[in-house]
């Protein structure tokens, strides 16, 4: 089904028909900077990539054609083989800065809700990709969460933002989850987390302290936990897993430098993660994990 906007025509993607024109997109390193794979070296490699993307279960992809001159300038649509419909778009560099991406993405979102029957769509955008984040906001997607990912051609992991939009307002939304960890010395443990993990103390109460809020980062809110002193000083050990990004190795160095006991070696896990752990004085095991 063709889709039309005031300036664009969205045509069902045909790898054989559109690969040559789209190689100007997928063969450009600047355009592919945030993509899941590096730039394609040939028209045939571009055709192969388009074919693979179309093969995902539930994929709906369109070639973006400019109405004024008939030039094919990119691709937009919904990714297949994902848990929730994944909004995607990519445009030739010559088409940047004119609002085409938001115009095309808005048409896809409208089609997804009105004609396909989806009740929500989401987009995964790298946190440094400010252009794509702006497109998401223009078409009504808002931030729903963050996680760390590493593409196979990258030498470092990166932070991804999940932005989403529901067809009707969500009746209930869990905004934040905060585990509670029992510790004998709240103030000392808070200071240790500040030194090792770059955490921030959002509040601390009592003399001596019996409760503290810890934010695992420099901002006013974000991933965090609450430290509490148990009534009788007995703490059942727990395990916490922290998903971290490019600073993974530096965090282990900070842990070793702080003198905290039980800093374990970095291990490559079979589920595609690199991990190391440290232990708090009460025996709590804190695992720091990043994509391999």
Automatic annotation (TrEMBL):
Q: What is this protein called?
A: GCN5-related N-acetyltransferase
Q: Does the keyword Repressor apply?
A: no
List residues traversing the bilayer. 71-92
Gene Ontology molecular functions:
acyltransferase activity, transferring groups other than amino-acyl groups
Per UniProt, residues of the N-acetyltransferase domain are 8-168
Q: Which organism is it from?
A: Actinosynnema mirum (strain ATCC 29888 / DSM 43827 / JCM 3225 / NBRC 14064 / NCIMB 13271 / NRRL B-12336 / IMRU 3971 / 101)
Tell me which UniProt keywords the record has, alphabetically: Membrane, Transferase, Transmembrane, Transmembrane helix
């Amino acid at each position: 089904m063709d889709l039309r906007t005031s300036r664009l025509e969205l045509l069902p993607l045909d790898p054989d028909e559109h690969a040559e024109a789209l190689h100007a997109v997928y063969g450009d390193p600047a355009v592919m900077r945030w993509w899941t794979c590096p730039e394609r070296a040939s028209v045939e490699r571009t055709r192969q990539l388009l074919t693979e993307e179309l093969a995902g279960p539930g994929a709906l992809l369109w070639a973006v054609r400019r109405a004024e001159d008939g030039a094919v300038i990119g691709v937009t649509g919904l990714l297949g083989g994902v848990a929730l419909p994944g909004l995607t778009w990519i445009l030739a560099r010559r088409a940047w800065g004119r609002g085409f991406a938001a115009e095309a993405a808005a048409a896809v979102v409208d089609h997804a809700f009105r004609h396909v029957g989806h009740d929500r769509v989401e987009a995964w955008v790298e946190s440094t990709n400010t252009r794509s984040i702006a497109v998401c906001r223009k078409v009504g997607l808002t931030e729903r969460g963050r996680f760390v990912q590493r593409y196979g051609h990258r030498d470092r992991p990166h932070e991804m933002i999940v932005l989403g939009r529901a067809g009707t307002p969500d009746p209930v939304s869990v905004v934040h989850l905060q585990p509670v960890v029992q510790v004998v010395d709240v103030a000392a443990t808070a200071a240790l987390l500040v030194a090792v993990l770059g955490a921030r103390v959002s509040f601390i109460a009592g003399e001596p302290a019996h409760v503290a809020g810890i934010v695992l980062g420099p901002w006013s809110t974000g991933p965090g936990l609450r430290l509490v002193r148990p009534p009788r000083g007995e703490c059942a050990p727990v395990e916490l897993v922290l998903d971290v990004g490019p600073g993974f190795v530096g965090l282990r160095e900070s842990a070793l430098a702080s003198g905290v006991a039980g800093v374990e070696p970095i291990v490559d896990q079979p589920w595609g993660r690199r991990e190391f752990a440290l232990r708090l004085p009460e025996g709590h095991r804190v695992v720091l994990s990043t994509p391999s």
